[in-house]
Amino acid sequence: MARSSQTQMAVLGALSIEPMTAYALREAIRDVLGHFWSESFGQIYPTLHALEEEGHVRRRGGARARSSVFEITGSGTARLIELLSEPVQEMPARNGLMLRLFFGRTLGRDRCRDLVRATREAAESQLKEYEKLLHRLAAEEGDTPDWPYIRTTIRAGIYHTRSTIAWADETLDAFSGGPE
Predict the structure, then answer these.
(1) Tens digits of per-residue pLDDT, 112-157?
(2) Of the candidates 147, 4, 1, which has an alpha carbon nearest to the alpha carbon of residue 85?
(3) CA 42 to chain CA centroid, nearest Å
(4) What is the CATH number of domain 3-85?
(5) Where are the domains of the chain?
């Protein structure tokens, strides 16, 4: 699936939950979807306007995107279903930490431990963010039909982050002894 199709999916998906201004859409993509999906802000506005030209979203209110509210149309919902039904395209892994650890003998055990400790600390912080997000959205969305799906993605983030913490602990234990 092309990058532009993925951006369309993010924009249409967010608007399927509720109509919003372009600015609110950008914030929702950053603050909620951003926990598991990164989207270039430079792509959101052009995609929104292209979707409007194609009739997949409709603008209510002013002529300016910032003051207008955008809502998904019937054809937009059909397009979203089409995009969501396509096979998931896995992106090739690019994990800078794993690259460094793979060549860790050259970097040295102490510096590898520092990298793993920093990763663990970041995961602890991320876990707190997921838990706050889950709590906040449960209060806001708990009775909406979207909630089970939103909750599922946040819980996946929590499980992934907990596994990162467990891996870091195991790795730090493995690096604690033995020769450099």
Answers:
(1) 999 999 999 999 999 999 999 999 989 988 788 888 998 999 999 9
(2) 1
(3) 16
(4) 1.10.10.10
(5) 3-85, 96-175
